[in-house]
User: Fold Alpha/beta hydrolase from Arenibacter aquaticus.
Amino acid sequence: MKVVALFCCSLFIFQGCVSQSSARLIDSQMEVTTSETLKYHLYYPENYGVDPEAKYPLLLFLHGGGESGADLKAFKDNGLAKLMERGMKFPFLILAPQNPHPKMWWNTRAVNQLLDTITASNKVDKNRIYLTGLSRGGGAAWEMAVQYPDKFAALAVVCGMAPLPYASWINKNMPIRVYHGDQDKSIPITESITMVDKLKEMGYQVEFTVYKGAGHNVWDRTYENEELYQWFMEQQKITP
Assistant:
């Protein structure tokens, strides 16, 4: 799916071809269009659509840096994509987009637009949209929770970088789980520790799981634990 986002910005335009005796500052405006093509997996649970009136929860999963690129097959090596490929069953829809840029951050505006499109075209309960991500995708999950605080009913972040200065922007009524290995050399556990401490200080509902002696790859044991999905299913969005 190609996602197009429009951005407006103010530009300072320097007209080098015009002679002038002193410096000038010109205020202007330009509409900038960016286009992002996002490949994705979309998982449907058993009995989806049997009841035409039923609506279903949806989990948005954001992968790590190693699965970025143009090969959707390689995307199935880790996290929820790997479990879906193995045939593990889930009680909700799962939207798993692929970041097309191996050495760039997630374009979370594009992901949000994709999520809105999938939500609108499927039988999705908008009060039960969940969010999770690992590593680079964990950082993107934090970012989406900050930028779209009224969208998600619950958040689970696995070994992700945290936007500490903007912690207060997250919906205070949204339950959060954080997972990290204490020997992580790629993204230090201090990223999660400082974020969790800050959120708890402000009264947020946060559960923090530290894997003793574990490095960066703690997503296998996190996502293979079906208790996580039971927890998600218990959550429903409460708006401030």
Notes: Confidence is low (pLDDT under 50) at residues 6-16. The chain is about 25% helix and 30% strand. Helices lie at 79-86, 108-120, 136-147, 190-201, 219-223, 227-233.
